[in-house]
Amino acid sequence: MTVPAIKGVGTSLFGKQPDLHPSELVWRAVDEAMTRAGVTAGELDAVYVGTVFGAPGVAQRALHAMGIVGVPVITVENACASGTTALHEASEAVRLDRWACVLAVGIEKMTDQFAGAIHPESTDIEGRSGLALPSLYAMAATRYQHAFGVTDAELAMVAEKNHGHARHNDRAQHRTPHTVEEILASRMIADPLTLLQCCPIADGAAAAIVGPHEPGAREVVIRSSVLRSGQLWDHRSEHVWGFELIRDTARRAFEAAGIGPADLDVVECHDAFTIGEIVTTEALGLAPEGEGVGLLRDRHTHLGGPQPVNPSGGLLSRGHPLGATGLAQVAEVVWQLLGEAGGRQHPGATLGLVETMGGGVAGVDGNACAIAVLERLG
Amino acid sequence: MTVPAIKGVGTSLFGKQPDLHPSELVWRAVDEAMTRAGVTAGELDAVYVGTVFGAPGVAQRALHAMGIVGVPVITVENACASGTTALHEASEAVRLDRWACVLAVGIEKMTDQFAGAIHPESTDIEGRSGLALPSLYAMAATRYQHAFGVTDAELAMVAEKNHGHARHNDRAQHRTPHTVEEILASRMIADPLTLLQCCPIADGAAAAIVGPHEPGAREVVIRSSVLRSGQLWDHRSEHVWGFELIRDTARRAFEAAGIGPADLDVVECHDAFTIGEIVTTEALGLAPEGEGVGLLRDRHTHLGGPQPVNPSGGLLSRGHPLGATGLAQVAEVVWQLLGEAGGRQHPGATLGLVETMGGGVAGVDGNACAIAVLERLG
């Protein structure tokens, strides 16, 4: 078995970029990742592409123009976890000595397809009944508030933190900090989730080069990478949205890495809606169940605290171009671990975690969770 | 390294089935494959899903209802080669001892989305100019006819053969044989390709269970599986559509399997349009370049001849539900090698090949070719 490492990462800008072709987003992300890794087109053994709504072959066209031809190009879809699934498959390919130099790239051009909410498929009964993702998260939030006595203002603290973090991220979609009051006063989307508690529609791409770990190299090792499928909303569970799936995936990822949640210096996780980050930080073991809000109150997960969560601004502020998001999270953690995160650097970070939840647009099933533990050695 | 084998295959019916939910197609294919393989839901380590236009999580929902939960489910897209890409990834996972029991399933519900031709993406300049796939194949056909002195009637012989084969396939979309005259008299789609020379829009699913080869078991070994990306239409080439990509992929697949084209007993290849099969049989080495029509004239590739090509009826007659097609081809070759192909059985077949070409809908780039060499041992 080979230890896989991330040799370089890159991203486009994030946000509504209707005038750019998907290829232009891919080029920016891939060029940065390859340059950073010191890898040329001819050295790549294979490519994994993460996208949800990208046209068939969306990345092949861009890669072709970069001279990346001949090698296998495999596009993967796992809803919002598509980018992390691409990383997972690249990581496994290196670990199993299938390939030695693999590009993982995520791309989503949402403004081509969605003016507002994503429409449910005609066969998606739940979606057509109104159970779109904002509604599902809103119901989860209400249930959570009921169970643990959490206020609307406490939910909004997630958005306050992440919008504050994004101020330092010049690739983020929204860089304006907002107070809890402003967040609560923004337009209601699905009670109790207001506009500033919902991730925006974005265009973007992100990429990573994965290869065998070389001791002494300026790179980040993939200590573990786990992908699981499961339910977005398990009617048999007392828990809110996705909790068991994230917890089970995290347990395996921690075991494989030989660490626990207290060892993490930095986390990027799936804050598609404010409630998502709270439930996720609990499922990851950063706080006991029902006490996730305490992490915010204590500024434990703020930049400047001991375990910053979503220093990039997260999906809420960096934006959420579905297939690109997982690799954008990976890029942020890699930058943090290499000390390249600029104004949002968590000092001395060596161990980080990326978690992405893939909630199917096609209703209440069809979910995935991908978690990777990343470390800078030496 | 472990030798991967196909333990069981299954398919839905193929054709326009607007009243069926995608899950119903998946259930039929997966249930048949699992039953045939003697595998239960809890024994699966992972699932690869091939689809092109399926909604995010299209298969997770169906799998969930079958009790296939928790394990990684990775949806892959590679245009028309998506199903074969799913098989390739499953095969590699077994070969590299990543997993021991993997389901590959392809699903496409085209009648939900397309009434007629597939519309090009807004960013697809070639497609919007009229270079949709029928036009591209038609241009390739015309160029081929010019280069090698081939008549319209000779092109149509592919359709005559494959429509004739499908008569014996009770899961095929079109089971009516047609004469060359009828084929030429059908509605013109893109000169010289008439309606009966173009594959129809279809709904369908197909599945295969892949695991380590067990000597003595009633199964089919994957002797090699190769996936390459490349150009659908290479302006730098003197050759017609995809020839180099298929030839290069085939060369690698034959080398890895240690066989040559003359050793094959049966072939399923990508006859999306009649010209496609002619060019492909040449690129696979069944005939010298420019002499592919001879295979038809001599009935070499007809059922009853020494090397039947597309005994199932091919894409032209079985139908072409994009993501399902590759695994439907695999199912046909597995049935042939196990002597289970009924009225279309090629006697004594032990060595077969599956070839799928993935032409991006997004214009002239974005292509893939997947080839697998399959064998029944002992």
Can you walk me through this structure?
The structure is a homodimer of 378-residue chains. Chain A has 378 residues and is α/β, with parallel strands linked by helices. Chain A has one domain: Thiolase/Chalcone synthase (Peroxisomal Thiolase, Chain A, domain 1, 3-Layer(aba) Sandwich), CATH 3.40.47. In chain A, helix 1 (22-37) packs across helix 2 (58-65) and helix 3 (82-95) crosses helix 12 (322-337). Chain A is globular, with a radius of gyration of 19 Å. The two termini of chain A are 21 Å apart. Chain A has helices at 22-37, 58-65, 82-95, 125-128, 133-148, 152-166, 180-185, 243-257, 274-283, 292-297, 314-318, 322-337, and strands at residues 4-11, 46-50, 73-77, 102-109, 188-190, 193-194, 203-212, 220-230, 266-268, 351-358, 367-375. A 9-stranded mixed sheet of chain A has the order 3-2-4-7-1-8-11-10-9, with helices on both faces. A two-stranded antiparallel sheet of chain A has the order 5-6. At the A-B interface, helix 2, strand 3, helix 3 and strand 8 of A face helix 2, strand 3, helix 3 and strand 8 of B.
